[in-house]
Amino acid sequence: MKAGKALNARLDHRNPLVFDTHELGRRPGALQKLNRSVPAPRDFGIADVIGAPEGAPVELNLRLESVMEGVLVTGTARASAEGECVRCLEPLRQEVAADFQEMFSYHDADDRGRIRVEPGDDAEDEDRLFIEDGLFDLEPVLRDAVVLALPMQPVCRETCAGLCSECGIRLDENPDHHHDAVDIRWAALQGLAETVKDGEKDNMGGAEAGVDEKQEK
Description:
Blueprint: H1 2-8, E1 18-20, E2 31-39, E3 44-46, E4 50-52, E5 57-67, E6 70-84, E7 91-105, E8 129-130, E9 135-137, H2 139-149, H3 184-216
Parallel strand pairs: 7-8
Antiparallel strand pairs: 1-9, 2-5, 3-4, 4-6, 5-6, 6-7
């Protein structure tokens, strides 16, 4: 529930992802542009796949616009994500740019910008983000945008050949690498042929032994 965090806890203005809207006031049409570098929060990306390391710089370019019902935030986040190639399992680094837009509403305004006497508690509020004491927390919006911008199956390069499924060797480093495939339909016959050959060798050995015995007599 997006609104739950805002409703149940006061925002900390020292948090780099918490922004102050007091300068905008409640003047519809007022505009503020911000450029800020913030440290990536913990688990910022797709778990166990790819993401920005905790504390790595995330560059934000934001546009805050005051409207009747709240503040419309439009922006772009840029960061360097790290992960592992799903084909060759080698570490990789990838630049990611995520665009986003979100409305942060005043508690005393409805969807049409009309003033409400008390904050609503209906189900619609659960999907809305609110301004708390002139502050809003960008982190949940930023997380959603970055996750959507990241690849679910990152690769070090599009032409990566991956690993050999039989021995695990990197195919890019050994382009001529291969294993001789045996057709399973002929595997049984091949085993039978080898058995016959072994039997023939034993018979030949026995025959040679018999000839030697006759010669000795």
